[in-house]
Every structure is written in C-alpha cells, then in structure tokens.
Write a structure and sequence with these properties.
Length: 98
Amino acid sequence: MTEKSFWSRLFDFSFSSFVTLKIIPVLYGLWIAIGVIVALGMLTGGVGIMRFGYGWSGSSFFLSLIWTVGFFFLWVIGGRVWMKTEHVGSGPGRREGA
C-alpha cells in the first residue's frame, strides 16, 4: 500500500486514513509560537506599566517575569493536553459518549 499525500488524506471521504496525525505537530508549533508572542507582549506591557505608570522597581519586574513564565508554561501544557485529548478522542474505535 502506498503512502497517501497530505491532500489526498484531507479529501478522503471514505475516512480510511487520518490527516490529524500530520496536522497536530504543526498546530502544536503554532500554539507555542502564539504563546511566545503573547508572553513577550505581557512582559513588555508589564515593563511599560512599571516604567510609565507605577514606577520602576526590581520586585515588580520579577513578579511580572514570574507571571509571564507561569502563563507560558500553563499555555503550553494546556495546549498539549488539549491536542492529545483531541488526538486520542478521535478514531474509528471511539465509542459515543466515551
């Protein structure tokens, strides 16, 4: 049996092959890239607020850094769990309601 291309798997109306297995790594990479962009935006926004709003201090920067890193790790872990459950939850042997 020959290996089907991405496009032939995508438009396979008999559902004999899975396209999800090829898409999940790309979606996970995009998920992480979005998380990095949001985390950098949170960090620079926090630094901007400290600089122009409430005054500059090392402790507020440290708290902003902790918040940003915590957000990023929760974002990545949540995305991984979500994509894994979507991947495991789909398939020909899946029962309804399971």
